[in-house]
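Help! Submission page says 'invalid entity' but I think these are all valid:
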Amino acid sequence: MKIPGMNTGACGGGCNSAPDEKGADMHRRSFLKSGAALASVTLAPGVTLMAMGSGAAANANPDVRWGLLIDANKCSEDCNACVTACSDEHGWENTGAPTDPQWIRKVTLKNRSTGYTTTLPLMCQHCENPPCVDVCPTGASFKRVDGIVLVDRHRCIGCRYCMMACPFKARSFVHEPVTGQKVTTPRGIGTVEGCNMCVHKIDRGDGTTACVEACQKTGSGAMVFGDLNDPESEISKALANYPSVELRADLGLNLGVRYQNI
Amino acid sequence: MKRLLIAGLMMFGLLAGPTLGEGVYPDIPKATGAPHPEGNEFWRTNHMYLLKHDRDLTVHEGDRDVQASIAECVTCHAVNGPDAKPVSIASDQHFCRVCHDYAAVKIDCFQCHNSLPQELGKAALIFKEPESPTMDVLLAYLQEVSQ
């Protein structure tokens, strides 16, 4: 049995000082420790490359940065299509209770001096430098190579630091047991969740999100989805030709979601 | 008297031991669909590593063309209850629970994942039969790790 690091690294100095009669036991313990480390560290690349690696798979593309452009002028106050579509797509429901999930919500802004109101959908802004990722103690909050900020629920311990860190209140916590989840959107108690930019749709090559689809279906066309890195994409052209803002630009987060006319 | 009792107990142990054991060992429900090319023993031993590996591939790299997808597991391994409908993880007849209850290993997969068979549609891909050389590599690798 030769496992690299078993005699030295796996259990620090403690193993070396173990007396002889305990040798077998410590041996087994260090083996278990190092074995576990090996399995988790090296199994992944071994299996990835050899067994499951499939060139045809639509993996997250590092050359792409997915983004949204929302025109607040085209967003009418009585329309809730994007929120409903998101709820249907991902299987969450907001009944108005304070602890209910909010992957996307409609926000109404009012200019106090003139009384002019603007309404817009607000969701995870998919920052280039996401504060939620900075604060996450387990690495559950992460940014995919194509710019989508996600929660890996396998690693989330439900500490909710990310909810505190997010300047946009974009994340919510699942307080109650969940059943009947959509197969494409597993979600459950004790984890944090938020807009995932319909990552399953992107991976399957739909090239749009549920909210954008719904918005276009209503005819208002207030939302555009696309690749911010591609100068020929509809979203990049719109951003190049018309003024737009990112929310809380002072934070320097470089958001993936941009707004017009607010 | 004591000796008799002990002898009696031993006899009972000898006669009833194997049958009791068989009764306690889980009766693993049969699956629908094509059998695993690697064999059931392989999957019994390694399913947790494969699932763990592939979940990271899917969540972090967006690779949904994976071999071990939990949605496909619960679809092929669905067990019908008395009402002829598939049972959820709440029932001790559920495929995963049959063994996990026996082994006293608590799994929390189904806090987030749906334990009922799903209309997979475009969400998951058809179960892919791995090519034989890659399987050999995988087996060799697991053997190496477990040695």
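Support: the input was valid. A stray whitespace character was the problem, and the output above is from the cleaned input. Chain B touches chain A through 40 residues (CB under 8 Å).
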